[in-house]
Specification:
Pfam families: Niban2. Helix content is about 80%, strand content about 0%. It is an all-alpha fold. The chain has helices at about 5-55, 60-70, 75-85, 90-100, 105-130, 140-154.
Length: about 150
Amino acid sequence: ASVSEPAQKCCTENIQPFLTSILEELMGPVSSGFTEVRALFDKEVNEIIQDFQKTNDMTRLKENVDQLMTLPFNSVKMEPCYLKVNLLQELLQDLKSRFKVYHIDFVIQRTQNFMQELMENAVYTFEQLFSPSQQADSAKVATTIEKVKLRVLK
């Protein structure tokens, strides 16, 4: 009871007025990281579509879809997404000194984990909605892939 009032006052005067601007500042790198995840998924699926349109090979299509499933674990391809979030390092340094925010690396790592999880969910959903082995008409495969991609991105 004796700590509650001073703590409430401290939060009201020294932290609450800055929360909105802090969140806006932090959301820039986070949003750009998640946008990069979306763009990477879009690019990879477009490459599958283009390859299929060139080859019309269902076996190769299955291999490409299987390879897409490994995308969340491909550190080279996911790196540009992760780099967007690394900007948080600089932003959080300022918060560390002003508000005693610690464990900056943990915040960045968790954000990158969420990005990987989002990609895992996207490729899993894509796989569930599109199965190359169930495609009877190869003329409609590219259109079907595009529709599934748009559904996943939605």
